[in-house]
Every structure is written in C-alpha cells, then in structure tokens.
Amino acid sequence: MNQKLYEGKAKIIYTTDKPEILLAHYKDDATAFNAQKRGQISGKGQINCTVSTHLFKLLEQAGIRSHFLEQTAPDQMLVRRVQIVPLEVVVRNIAAGSLCKQTGLPEGKILANPLVEFYYKNDALGDPLLTIDRISVMQIATPEQIEQLRSLSLEVNRILSEFFNQCGITLVDFKLEFGLDETQQILLADEISPDTCRLWNQSETDAEKRVMDKDRFRRDLGNVENAYQQVLERVLAQTSTK
C-alpha cells in the first residue's frame, strides 16, 4: 500500500514497497506568486509528467543523471529517493519575469551568456535570491557542490535549448532542482515542464500569443490548457524523430 510521504503544490509523493524508490503523482493544481494565486489547469498533471519523462530521458542519453526511473501512468512516475538540496537553480537565456522587474532589463533582451541564479527553496521566506557567499554561510551546499550545480545546469540548458529550438520553441529560462542520492551524488530532480520553464512559440511575434507556459496562468492570458498541450505535442513529435 502506497503511503503519502509529502504533498507539494504540483505533486504528491508516495512510498513504494522499495524504500529507495518513490512514486510521484502530478496534480492538475496550479499556483503562482508563491501560492498566492491558485487554480486548476485541466490535464496539466498528465502533460507535465509526460513532458518531464521525455526530457529526463533526453538528458539521461546525454549523460545527465536524474531521479527519473519510469513513467507508470499518464500522471505518475517512479523516482529515486533523494535528499533535495534546498536551492532552486534558475538559468536565463532571455530577460523575462523577475529579472526584468529587479534590473530594469527589457523583456525579450537576449543575454550575452546564460545567467545562472540560486534561490533559497523556502516558501516562508519567499524563495529569496542568494549569493554564493550566502549559500556558504547557510551551509546549504559546499563550494564544490555549488560549482557542480552550476555546470550541470548550464549543460542542461545547452541540451534543452537545442531540443526546444528543434520544436520551434525558444527556451527563455527555467528552474531546476537537484537532490543527493545515498552515495551523495548529485542528481537532477523535480520536473522539467511548462510549469518550470518559460517557453515562447517561435512562430508568434505577439508578446502574449507566443507564451506557451505557466505565464499564461500567472498573467491571465487564457488558453492555458491549449498552450500546455501544444508543448506536449511538439515534444512528442520531436522525440519520435530522434
């Protein structure tokens, strides 16, 4: 009997008959602005689980290890149990969202080099942006682990940017989470989906119509389900050609 271990904003994690393996159930619930805005996106759980499955497999083929093991249902996957590092690693290729609000950079400005940022995974504190020195002071990760998280995130960015480009989608920015396995090896964790990535349709020039991610929900742009479905269809189509 699977027991609920943890319920987050987007997923429920259950135990399995193997202590080192967990079951992740993807929900249709949608949240934004640190859960101040809540709603539902019909079919989101199945779409995000399936997109994440295909992207984890793509990354695995490129040598990026993750917690992903197997998709067992449209909205469920088996994952390795890891100790989550309480950092959200954000990689930005184009200025958007909080980067524009905090720096005054115009939305859509292409960055000369990908920007890697670390945020403290703590809802009570509002997931604040951290400096490398603060991460060290807080003893969240060692300098070696911080460098590994950075280099892994940049490699994920290179692989996913190329893949999404082949899908006719621009990868604007995205959030990654990592965990430590029983041998203290760093594994990619959580999910990679329209919930955690900013994705722009390359065939649209309109700043609102091009949005294919959770910004449609955040900004009340409508057609959220359709945008997520489009991402899924393009990912599946591109994956089948590889």
Primary descriptors:
242 residues; seven-stranded antiparallel β-sheet; five-stranded antiparallel β-sheet; 6 helices
Give the structure's gist in a few sentences.
By secondary structure, the protein is an alpha+beta fold.
3D architecture notes:
This protein has six helices and 14 strands. The model has no long low-confidence stretch (mean pLDDT 95). Helix 1 packs parallel to helix 6. Strands 8, 9, 10, 11, 12, 13 and 14 form a seven-stranded antiparallel β-sheet that branches. Strands 1-2-3-7-6 form a five-stranded antiparallel β-sheet. Strand 6 (68-73) and strand 7 form a beta hairpin. The protein has helices at 44-61, 98-103, 132-137, 143-166, 215-218, 224-241; strands at 4-7, 11-15, 21-26, 29-32, 37-40, 68-73, 76-80, 83-84, 87-94, 110-120, 129-130, 169-180, 186-189, 197-201. The chain starts with a strand and ends with a helix. It has 242 residues and is an alpha+beta fold.
